[in-house]
Amino acid sequence: MKAVKLKTTVEIPIEGIPLPTRFVSFEGVDKEHFALLIGDCHTLPVLTRIHSECLTGDVFGSRRCDCGAQLKEALSHMSERGGGVLIYLRQEGRGIGLYSKFDAYVLQTQGIDTFTANEMLGYADDSREFESAGAMLKALDIRHIDLITNNPAKVLALQGCNITINRTLPSGVFLTVENERYLRSKINKKQHTINLNKNR
């Protein structure tokens, strides 16, 4: 990976967040990844969420995943805490792209789990990478964080980038009839720390 540097920072107010919010772009990343800085990002450890783009969930509120709910929850926690950073990675559909994600959804309606569906389409079961997030945090001069995640792969990737994770804070459990099979596949195949019994 090329050296990652800050490119542009612009303040854009966000509805529902009473703190200053700044969007940051970067040089040296392979996609249009960006950071959203909320309030105070200097008090350590910085509350942090690494979020992979999910257009269907983040924008349209899809009930087939928990992505949009996790995003809203993280922003709410950051607002309540007085600051935080969201690293938004443009790697839709576990890295396979939006159109291929639609194809994977068709297979999932036949009972195939999300990871196997990606493999049936000729992709890795999860093509995402999180090293870019580590490089972006370093470019922001953020090296000590509290990380909101259920995904152990994110923890390992950031630790490999010499980001110190003070605490790992689990995301909420956002169970719907439509996403239960999806959540179980994340638990069984990728060891996500999701307790589905909490919402029973």
Automatic annotation (TrEMBL):
Catalysed conversion reaction: GTP + 4 H2O = 2,5-diamino-6-hydroxy-4-(5-phosphoribosylamino)-pyrimidine + formate + 2 phosphate + 3 H(+)
EC numbers, comma separated: 3.5.4.25
Ranges of residues in domain GTP cyclohydrolase II: 23-169
Pathway(s) where this gene product acts: Cofactor biosynthesis; riboflavin biosynthesis; 5-amino-6-(D-ribitylamino)uracil from GTP: step 1/4
Name of the top EC class for this enzyme: hydrolase
Pfam family, one: GTP_cyclohydro2
UniProt keyword terms in alphabetical order: GTP-binding, Hydrolase, Metal-binding, Nucleotide-binding, Riboflavin biosynthesis, Zinc
MF term (GO), any: GTP binding
GO CC term (a single one): cytosol
InterPro entries: GTP_cyclohydro_II, RibA, RibA-like_sf
Protein name, UniProt field: GTP cyclohydrolase II
Lineage, top ranks: Bacteria, Pseudomonadati, Pseudomonadota, Gammaproteobacteria, Pseudomonadales
